[in-house]
Amino acid sequence: MSRIHVTTTINGEETDFLCEPQQTLLDVLRDDLDMTGSKEGCGSGDCGACSVILDGRLVCSCLVLAPEAEGRSVETIEGMAEGDKLHPLQQKFLEMAALQCGVCTPGILVAAKNLLERNPDPTEEEVRYWLAGNLCRCTGYDKIIRAVMETAADLRGAA
Amino acid sequence: MSGAPKGAAHQAVAHESAEKHVSGRADYTDDLVTPVGCLHAYLGGADVTHGLIMGMDLSAVEAAPGVLGVLTAVDIPGKNQISAVHAGDEPLFPEEMVEYHGQPLFAVVAETRDQARRAAALAEIEISPLPHVLSVGEAMESRLPHVTAPLKLQRGDARKALDAAPRRLAGRMEVGGQEHFYLEGQIALAIPGEDDEMVIHCSTQHPSEAQAIVADVLGVPANAVVVNVRRMGGGFGGKESQMNLFAAVAAMAARRFGRAVKLRPDRDQDMAITGKRHDFLGSYDVGFDDAGRIVGVEAELAARCGFSADLSGPVTDRACFHFDNAYYLPEVTITSRPMKTNTVSNTAFRGFGGPQGMLVGERVIEEIAYALGRDPLEIRRANFYREGADETPYHQKVEDNIIARVVDELEESADYQARRAAVLEHNAKGGIIRKGIALTPVKFGISFTATWYNQAGALIHIYKDGSVHLNHGGTEMGQGLNTKVAQVVSEALGVDLDRIKVTKTTTEKVPNTSATAASSGADLNGMAALDACETLKARLAGFLRESRGVEEVEFLPGRVRAGAEEIDWTALISEAYMARVQLSATGFYKTPKIHWDRDKGQGRPFFYFAYGAACSEVSVDTLTGEYMVERVDILHDVGRSLNPAVDLGQVEGAFAQGMGWLTTEELWWDEDGRLRTHAPSTYKIPLASDMPRDFRVKLAEWSENPERTIKRSKAVGEPPFMLAMCVLEALSMAVASVCDYAECPRLDAPATPERVLIAVERLRR
Description:
The complex is a heterodimer.
Chain A: E1 4-10, E2 13-19, H1 25-32, E3 51-54, E4 57-60, E5 73-75, H2 88-95, H3 105-118, H4 124-130, H5 142-158
Parallel strand pairs in A: 1-5
Antiparallel strand pairs in A: 1-2, 3-4, 3-5
Helix pairs in contact in A: 2-5
Chain B: H1 18-23, E1 39-45, E2 51-57, H2 59-63, E3 67-71, E4 97-98, E5 104-110, H3 113-120, E6 124-129, H4 136-141, E7 152-155, H5 158-164, E8 167-175, E9 188-192, E10 198-202, H6 207-218, E11 225-229, H7 244-257, E12 261-263, H8 267-273, E13 280-288, E14 294-304, H9 312-322, E15 332-339, H10 354-372, H11 376-383, H12 403-413, H13 416-428, E16 433-446, E17 455-462, E18 468-472, H14 481-493, E19 500-502, E20 505-506, H15 521-548, E21 553-556, E22 559-562, E23 565-568, H16 569-578, E24 584-590, E25 595-597, E26 602-604, E27 608-621, E28 627-636, H17 644-662, E29 694-699, H18 725-736, H19 753-764
Parallel strand pairs in B: 1-12, 10-11, 14-15, 18-19, 28-29
Antiparallel strand pairs in B: 1-5, 2-4, 2-6, 3-5, 7-15, 8-13, 9-10, 9-12, 11-20, 13-14, 16-27, 17-18, 17-24, 21-22, 22-23, 25-26, 27-28
Domain Aldehyde oxidase/xanthine dehydrogenase a/b hammerhead (chain B): 23-131
Pfam family, one (chain B): MoCoBD_1
Family (chain B): Belongs to the xanthine dehydrogenase family.
């Protein structure tokens, strides 16, 4: 079978790659584009470790076929910081120890960023249910929820 | 005022990899750049639970696109054996008999992982089925053997005490197992080298064991095998022995094809073929007086161990060691029954049997409370270890007992009495939503019960520019071990934390290490690193005394004082190098005082105890069985914390994991022996939306380890897991309200909404 040529935008940069039709976006990001920040936790869309933003929408990249990225915009954890300057969510997670083993962390940050872009002033319930698609086995979530709430407040204050 | 270096011990500094974690730049094994031509292996397994292997036709597998070949038992160059305890009961690939559903029988190696994974499904394997046994109860009825020798702990004459007791009751409790659900699954990358050499990158808590097993399977000495792990994406005990299979298969394939080989199962296979927390069936017979004080108890703790011994011996031992929890049991007999079943072999999981034993022990307390119509907290207090009543069932004295203070403080800070009264009042109104509240203690013994495991090594280099390179035998799985050990070194050498680099754990630097398990990581490796620092400091001090002709040498943050002179650290190191002072040292530590005679059931298996207490309040919908944990208060003892931020994270995470174990996490095998909860779609660990909205977690800041541990801290990995016991008992109280607390609901774990509803219906009748 011939490989498919895909032209897409990843973290604002136009990118093209060749892929097999059955390859997932996650596999291409990790194996072909050397962007290993997105993780495969389950491969079935249940854990959120591979979360990316596709045309503004939060998706599990293990459930997106790579050719579906054609002509679209993909945002991954690698594009969250601006150079050496961490995104406020990243900075807050670091400061508040809202992470342990770190495998769920990129997916949770991507999901939280997407939430705050949609809703700059979420309630705690909204944060908890928005992040219910991202499993964490280490932290018990409390510091994560606090970090998202505090970042939201900081960003509102700065706006 | 000498102060402390930036990032020294006891400071709440961030995890050493935190910046890499948040930016997605932390490399886990699957993220490493693979050598050119790296191949991928995948495991093919049995579709039968128990049976004789009549034939394997792997021709379709071999003919599949991209496949280079298959590996079966006959291709193993060395021993076909991966038992973690050298029990000889765990073949890498079985040759005659399948002992659990999904058991790997062969591996296929292909150019891509996708090709290998698809090809593995094409095998034609003929198996003649045999009857199978899945549960603990069935195993005992069918008189299946023990996978390892049971343990009996005995003090006094429990039977006689029971017969003479003013009151007596007996019961049994089912305690479910648990899947680790480390977010990073099992993985190994093997890279062949010259001659018989093999380098393996593997997600493992026990690199030295992976090394030994791989050497045996390859038929080479241990010095030919290097195992590396920079970090794991969670371990929880699931990578203490379970990585052996993956490391061995990857190594075997790499040897065969002379190319690097990566093996990473998908989540479904990972869950089907790796061991879990042991399910237990606990039974108890307890005698007590009208004040609720226990006079004697007999308990049997039977466990589903799966098809092989693995770590079931020490796990079921630890269940016996923790049945007492914080309570003095005057006349007592506790026995374990490590039962063989036709299921995947159960293994280590945070708490290592302790939680299961302790939960059954707490059920005894709860039963007594319901029998006497009293608050379970009163019964707890009446039975706490105390002066003159301080000997455990294994004849170790509890010398560091602080449980009463911990519980008293939590009772007050959580406002337990007023809230319990409010809960009782709420329930008295009838209504659909019922509430429950419970406060439970934890006392957990620290040390490996395999005494020889209580040793550790470290290796520290100081380079000419003054930067420090730290290596120790422990492994980083998110728990912050590397951070804590680096903080110890920072304080000891007076060097800021950012000048210390902790590198990957590797069998090349520190040999013969113990598993990073039993909560021992910081206790053991911190001490070993400190020992190396002392050696280096002695050499530097000796150099200064000689070169300056002074006696007094003091290490200060960033500098050293020699007599009246202060020398900057970097300058000192440069000077010491020129003077040919050795700037590299190993360190070693072995835990003192401990000993254990298993045959007699006597000794001091634990160096010390860690304590804690938690209080949970829940609401239960009695029409559906659904519930919410509304508020949780925790007070936990970590001695003098090496890093309060890291320790609080451990306490919170352990509580959440314990809560999952007791509530939503249900492992379910069908009649044919297939694990049906083999992915997060069906196996439910807690979500952000499941956790209490009001979560108040504190460390007992006044506590200091009376034993000479690293900086007087205490181990923290496992003890807080058992704080979650209060969730089960709070649910139980809400359920019991429907019969006005006349009966102990005897909720089994996990108390899924289904089980809660069944209990409500039963008690309503």
